[in-house]
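Translate sequence into structure tokens.
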Amino acid sequence: MLIQIVLFQGFDELDVIAPFEVLKNAAAAGANLQVELVTLDDTQEITAAHGLQVQAEGHLGNGPRPDILIVPGGGWNNHAPQGARAEAQRGELPSAIARLHKEGTIIASVCTGGMLVAAAGLNVHRPAITHSGAVEELRATGATIINARVVDDGDLISAGGVTSGLDLALWLVERFFGAALALKIERQLEYERRGTVWHR
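Result follows.
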């Protein structure tokens, strides 16, 4: 399984680093998965919302299509000049998300990454969640808001605020590789999952 996490200027650090570490730990523990940090274009070094500079490993769209694409948020609620809101307005990333989803990629969002999924037109009449500060904006796009930490609607998965990326990634491990492995990763991280996972 190939899981890619897409980076853009102004992404929230924890939205990316938390799922990245969970998934890397799962791979090290035997899960048949590969996780990569990718960008939409050829930009390799990305500066996150709080100044962390991250080196991308690849280019979204080059190479094999990911089985799962994780979309972080960042910069939405404070209208930052770089971040998810700016990417939604630019339109290129939502278009790529929509294309990958149509081709069969599962789309998973963390925090206000859900607004980029909404900008891709994927959440209409679908259950979803995002950061509490953007819930009403998500509702206005036609999404059905579910009050859960993680909302799994099959090929669309969303998670709430910033730290919910941990819960999202642990749920992905459980869904695809079993509850025992997910519990093992929880214990390694000394983290207990919070809230509920809604799924059909």
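Note: The chain has one domain: 2-199.
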